[in-house]
Fold these 2 entries.
Entry 1:
Amino acid sequence: MKQLFSQFFGTVGVLDSIRVTLIMSFWSTLIASVLGIFLGLLLERKDFPGKRLTVRINRTLMGAPPVVIGLLAYMLLRKKGPFGSLRWVFTIKGMVFAQVLIITPIVCGMVYSYAVRTAPAIRAFARTMGADRTQTGRLLIREMKNEIYFAVVSGYGRSISEVGAVFLVGGNIKNNTRTMTTAISTLKGAGDYYEGIFLGVVLMIMAFAVQTLADYFRKEETGDENF
Amino acid sequence: MRKANKAIAMAMAAMMALSMTACSGSAAETAPAETEAATEAAAEETEAAETEEAAETEEAKEAEGVLLMATTTSTDNTGLLDYLQPLFLEETGIDLQWTAVGTGDAIQKGKDGEVDVVLVHSKAKEEEFVESGFGVERFQVMYNDFIIIGPKDGPIEKTEDIESVFKQVMDEQLVFVSRGDNSGTHNKETGIWDKLGIADYESNPNYISAGAGMGDTINMTDEKGGYCLTDRGTWLAKKADYPDMEIVCEGDANLLNQYGVIAVNPEKYPDVNNEAANTFIEWICSPEVQKLIGEFGVEEYGEPLFFPNAEQK
Amino acid sequence: MKISNLEKQMGDFHLHIREMNLEDGLVHGLVGSNGCGKTTLSKLITGILTPDGGTIDYEGLTFRDITMTSQKPYLLHDTVYQNLIYPLKIRGIRPDEEEADQWLSRCGLLDKKKQYARSLSSGEQQKLSFIRALIFKPKLVIVDETLSNLDPDSTELFEQLILEQQRKRPITWITISHQLVHIKKICDRVHFLERGEQLAEGTPEEILLRPSHPAIRNFLSKTEVSFRGD
């Protein structure tokens, strides 16, 4: 099996790139989701001076080019940078760091948008049901479950498809910090287009598999809603 | 509301804790591969994980340290490092890892202390690197040469004179695809324009600055039926894909591409793996390895990709 | 429950109730034209909104004793049954499935017990919201326009439920409605609001039959239902 891969993909290190992609995207998505959901809900709940500006900044960050964030992350993590002592350059940790910077605003923005539309009604309802703070919090998460799932899955999608930032921070080191996307980029740079597409298809199949899994766990309760 | 999040996070983190060990190095990846298979999208992982396991035990990682190198994409593309890496590991127990970027970026990484050793092919930049104090000493390792490739039966006749070729490109406004990415190859090209005193080579409407890697640039050249400057190694590896192109110019003294290896100065960055860097430099300059370098590619392409020329002491 | 000097600003609208008496165990009706502050007041009572000024003396009631139903009720993304027993779960009360079934069959919802609640028709949703409000034995129920778009049979059903409840164990009701027939039928007290103020409170006869305030007369003249007889 390995021979087959090696033959076709040459020395780009495909199997390891799959492993690296999985590890990195798992951690990026997890951390960014926890942060993003928390911040998104917090943002909806609290009013403070400068809230409009904060929301606007969040929106902007959602669309920020990942390669720019990646460069920023690299400069933060390099030895001369403020977090240089972490030695996260050329490591998966560093790549996760960069990706968290990219994905958290996305999850936060999506959760915030949805919360703005639905959280007040849920809170009012919780009140009339006599729920206390904790119960209200749990209710919010439960009732917004589908949208939260959607935000998380979107975050995951961004994570595995990202190439600029992970390239800059990770260094695309074969077997170590080369992801599927940077491997595709390497293949392309070497002129191996067909191999690149093939790997791209593998990547998309993986993304599809995760979507299917997410759907399976997310119990489909939606009947036809009566409007 | 944080409680629910934290509960989920911790449950999954507990399951995935093992996989983090894979992040910090290349040692012992069998367990993480398995855990991953169990928790992530189950289906397609198991196959990959099993193959991974087999591969890992094969390589038996007992690395005595890691040597981090910055080098160029064209060096990486030749496959020489992939060939040397396991040999180096076996002989010294040191795991050579490298990041392949542009020449400028590679040198900068050396100056920033992000890597332990630098292997590039841009003498001027290498010497400046040493002079700046961030590089210890420059050792020449090997050279290959650049060539001009272009369409068979194209307007340029085969020649050894690079300057005449460049002049013809300018005069006849021929299609010329440049790397355009400040790489060693690109610098070689601009150096020749400089030498010829042609400052406005970009005014040629058919001059294309690709901003791309070598393989990509060759592809573009073929598409456009033009000419480009490439290193022989990449051309040998790719020429089967481009039956319409051939070598149009080779052998000029200007076209030599000298590789140098430099250790990053531990006085500036005490935590660089200087010992491993020196081991590597000694190793790659040793007569045995030099011989291997000189034989690299012969079997596959019929001619060597490199000409070893380390100074023997 | 006594309300004193309650004030709330909502955009352009300003609510100011100088004094309102909501006696225990009676059915109170809040009437007035749209935008008079009925819904704002009910939100203040349930604690969804906090007042800018003034006080509500709950006389010992807590938020767990108070509940509200509305015209477009919020339903959980879950089955009818789960929605119904939710207030019990909040209070840590083990749901008695038999009792729950009784409530459901009373409304004709028993066969839809396992159905996704949000797929119910709006009338059914209102009924569900109503019994959900009663299942945990509240002390104060606010019925906010819930009956407005209901068919006559369902309206009848709700009124029966309210009256039954009052016979068995009287609790305090605040019903907000435009339907004066309904108000007259079940309310012990009527409170008339206009433009954020309570203009009058008293028995239905006092307020609706022999209104002293010109605004109330004006309001009544606009409604079709004559208030003499039925």
Entry 2:
Amino acid sequence: MSAIATPSTSASQEAPPRRATMEPPWVRRLLIGITVGFLGLFLILPLLSVFIQAFAKGLEFYFQAISDPNALSAVKLTLITVAFAVPMNCVFGVAAAWAIAKFSFPGKTLLITLIDLPFSISPVVSGLIYVLVFGTQGWLGQYENADHPWFPWLQTWLNAHDFKIIYATPGIVLATIFVTFPFVARELIPLMQAQGRTEEEAARVLGASGWQTFWQVTIPNIKWGLLYGVILCNARAMGEFGAVSVVSGHIRGQTNTIPLHIESLYDEYNFTAAFAVASLLALLALVTLVLKTWAEHKKNAALKLAAE
Amino acid sequence: MIFSRQRTVLPGFNLTLGFTLFYLSIIVLIPLSAIFFKTTALTWAQFHEVTTSPVAMASYRLTFGASFAAAMLNAVFGLIVAWVLVRYQFFGKRLLDAIVDLPFALPTAVAGITLARLYADNGWIGHWLHGVGIQAANSQLGIFIALTFIGLPFIVRTIQPVLEDLDTEVEEAAASLGASRWQIFWRVIFPMLTPALLTGIAMAFARALGEYGSVIFIAGNIPMKTVITPVLIMGELDEFSYAKATALAVVLLIISFLLLLIINLLQWWSSRHHAHL
């Protein structure tokens, strides 16, 4: 009796019947299990541990750690850096995408490759190149100490004002601009290429000026792609560590950004304080992921519209 | 400008291209050229000595080995993750899909200290591993773990779109001809994913080679044992030996450029392959 009943019950449990392009249920369950296990171990567990370690010594310690004068000055420096890096790369990204997507000229592929270049360079090397240009042993230092320089007035001015780039805010800003250089441009170039130039041309023919066309036709079309690029650019700018570490000099309360302040705390075995400050950046990462998912959704809708 | 013969009513070509080239030169090209000018301060013999010293060679072996191993582990699990996220429906799928990008969004220093604490001998995972005699922190295994973390999204994100666009008709045809599910995967689906998979591996590998922030805390930086090349460069800089640091940076930079070339070729192959489907 049971021998007859078993196949029919298992068939009814499997409704709708398995299609030929579907794996057996046990394979599906195994693969989902592996995925959850792998992502849980490598992503979710570390993320949770940041917050748990941050509050290990209680709320009072947490708020003390993030309101410490050195922590606040690190936050301030990071915000100053972002205030320069993000708008500058944003303007660059829009300009580059306009030139590349709306016009044809020789060497375009090479230009796109060069724009992407900073992504493939080690952060440490990214910082090093600015030390070689602006450091005391670098081109700027050689110029400041040269016996017979070009433009002697410039050398006098630089030396008189103790003009510093490396181990100071300008170096940190430059290194951050370098590592976040491609973010906006690489989002906008494919989007604007897909959208073509017919809408802008129509606006021009109907009598709109160049700026009017840009603000009223192009910007509304690219706003989600632009936002997406800005979100990624901002996240990287706030969290950059390697490149900034090379040019900063690690002066507490002066040239420490948030990630560098975390390193200083960690190196002193002040783990709870390090994780408290780190939790701010982890929170930023979570906000970034949410905003990114949302902007990506909107951007893909814009791309789909362009394809139609 | 020489390219200004454009047959379009759109303005701003000279302005935008001019600004693009200016900004690119100031921020990227001129500083980058400094590295090649500075190495000429060394003679060829000196350059050779610095870049092939035992310390440097040990760092290359470690950096390459750990980056490759991490990319391979990610290739296997990334393929499974991408498959599950595209093909199956289950509770929490959208959350998992969003969290795959965490290594892109989480600053490397935060990832670094977190992994270092987790895998320390008294850490959540580290004390289990320690119990069975495995040392994760301050070892090459730790470097491998950190590089796996930062490389994770590359493979998932390159395979996902290809898998989404894959037509199930081909699979149905293979099934109707009597192929088993396993045969269909290996003979039909996997070959179509290969270009994207290789691109993802190359990208994860390239990213791992230059990685610094997530590695230094867990690595322990023991000379000749757990010092990766970027940390070696940093060490030379801390001692103000700019010439040595620059020479090592040139090696890293040339490898990065070669990898960039390979990735571009793979992407070109991938898109051509994809267009044929």
